[in-house]
Amino acid sequence: MRATEVPAIAGAYLFEPTPYADERGFFCRTFDADVVRSVGLDPNAFVQDSVSRSARGVLRGLHLRSGDGEAKLVRCSYGRVFDVVVDLRPDSPTYRERAFFELSGETQATLYIPAGCAHGFQSLTGTADTSYRIDRPHDPAEDVTIAFDDPELAIPWPLPVTSMSRRDREAPSLADALRRKES
Description:
Layout: E1 2-5, E2 13-16, E3 20-22, E4 25-27, H1 33-38, E5 48-55, E6 59-65, E7 72-78, E8 80-87, E9 98-104, E10 110-113, E11 117-123, E12 127-134, E13 143-145, H2 166-169, H3 174-182
Antiparallel strand pairs: 1-2, 2-10, 3-4, 5-12, 6-11, 6-13, 7-10, 7-12, 8-9, 8-11
């Protein structure tokens, strides 16, 4: 497994495993505490695992948490997703920068997203399973959502949106969400 720093988002990393394929399919390690530790992250800091299943065109996000924020490891275990990270940490050298990734079940790459960054993704395939490893228990009172189509962010979503949650559809602009995050 190789860890690569994401230049557009300070403190973000892409963990790329080496799948071993044969006639049966493949096997790969998707989490390695030693590799996580080698980039200065505490592998024991993650306290919750979750998974979502999305149909083609489904968009989830952009989400982040107020207060201490929430760091997470995100991986598409089946299918493919267009994944987006926006740095919303005012003291970060990459503040308001965006980074885009294609995560897939083929590569099993895992993206580390630091606390204070917004995250969202769109399913590119008929079914996409996305796994999250989160460093804090979820508190709905800290949820912050940003409009996926905010013109200031100008995210190039690759497909028309087929479905999204009511919360995501009604999300405020980046400017309004940042005011909420700081309060």
